[in-house]
Structure prediction request, 367 residues.
Amino acid sequence: MIPFKYGVFVTGTDFCGRKKELNLLKEYISSSMRVYIVGERRTGKSSLLMETARKMPGYRFIYVDLRSIVTRGQLCERIANGLNRQGKTKQAFSKLMKAIASLRPEVSIDSITGDLKLSVSPEIQVSDVDIDKLLEMAGEKKTVVVFDEFQDIQRIKGYETILGSMRTVIQSQTNTSYIFCGSTFNRMTDLFTDRRSAFYNSAQRMLLEAIDETEFTCFLADRFKSGGRLPGDNGIKRIIEFGRGNPGDIQKLCIGVWNQTAPGDNIDQAAVTEGLANMCALESDSFRERLDSLSKNQILCLSALLKREEPFTLSNQFASRAGLGSYSVAKSAIKGLTEKDVLLKKGHSWVMSNPFLAHWLHLSDLV
Ligand SMILES: Nc1ncnc2c1ncn2[C@@H]1O[C@H](COP(=O)(O)OP(=O)(O)O)[C@@H](O)[C@H]1O
Ligand SMILES: [Mg+2]
Prediction:
């Protein structure tokens, strides 16, 4: 069995380190605080929340994922399903159904989990009051309401009024903790620090950064050893460097290295290079599709960026070197690449958000 996990929430023995963050989060929750957690994609935000929930068994965690949400109906659906996953009793279910009766929710059985699933038809008119009613049901003692990928609430038309009325309900729930999690730095920061936002100054910021290198090195070395591989420091160091301290990218590369090695093999630089090639080959179709979805200017921009050291900054000089004519054309290409999650904004500069895509592009002559 492959001892590395990628693309799933990790908890328990699969969860490495983050002691400081776990303790801080536990303290915030015990004090019924409101917290917003920001960190790059795949840095372990959702896993940190799941692990916190596991370590706080006396608390009710209502998990609501807002990824790709676009309507009020979906927002109700997701909060209702979060409540329902926690409730489990017949009484809790009837109370929930009663609260959202006006939305005429349909009930089905989730084919994967076997749980009851509620859905709201797109034709139903949903008001901010309907959303508030659901939040009111969540507001109990020893309860934590988690909104994951919270920045996506901005995709809902008129989301400002939703935030306004949500804030009023949340403010009245003094014994309930709320955690808002997000991976789009600027959008999350705007929601909580822009004076015009209804959520301005409403939550404590928590930044989830790179995973501790020493702890993660031991964790990965043990996993390689469990399958008879011989990890040398250089190999693992190279893997962690490649993943820039991002545990998701690091575990993904470990899977590639694992696939290319057998018991008794060294995990050295050569093994890492092969593992990397293995992972990039597995993803080459999706990378090609990504490339096809880019505009001509975005490709020109990417090509110029890849000839430079990361992080990249935008300048007039860069625009002309990339053959993009003007600063504003280059700026809009970079904006598009950021929206498509090819680039990640860090302060005033950008880096490639997916190191595997960056490596694949470097190897291919496509840009
Ligand atoms: N503390 C951790 N220990 C080990 N691996 C982790 C840890 N946190 C995250 N990961 C790795 O990162 C991947 C993505 O984690 P996830 O919690 O989904 O990140 P995020 O919510 O920030 O996108 C996991 O599948 C796992 O491979
Ligand atoms: Mg997540």
About this structure: The mean pLDDT is 91. The chain is about 50% helix and 15% strand. The chain has three domains: 18-207, 213-289, 295-363.
